[in-house]
Amino acid sequence: MISPLGDFHFPDAPSRLYPQTPERPWVLEIGFGDGRFWPHYAATFETAPNYLGVELSGVSLLKAQRRLKNAGLDNAILTKLPADVLLREVVPHGGLDSIVVNFPDPWPKAGHLDHRLLRVPFFEQAASRLKPGGAVLLTTDHDEYFDFACAAARDSGVMNVVLTEPPPAALETKYALKWRDLGLSPQHARFTPTAHPVVPHGDIHPYPEDPDLVPHAILTLPADFIPAAPGQPFEKRTTRAGGWTVILLDLYASLRRDGWVALAHVVEGELTQEVLIGISGREDGSHLVRLAKFGGPIITPGVKAAVGAVTDWLEESGGRVTHRGY
Ligand SMILES: C[S@@+](CC[C@H](N)C(=O)[O-])C[C@H]1O[C@@H](n2cnc3c(N)ncnc32)[C@H](O)[C@@H]1O
Question: Could you cite one Gene Ontology molecular function of this protein (predicted)?
Answer without folding.
Answer: tRNA (guanine(46)-N7)-methyltransferase activity
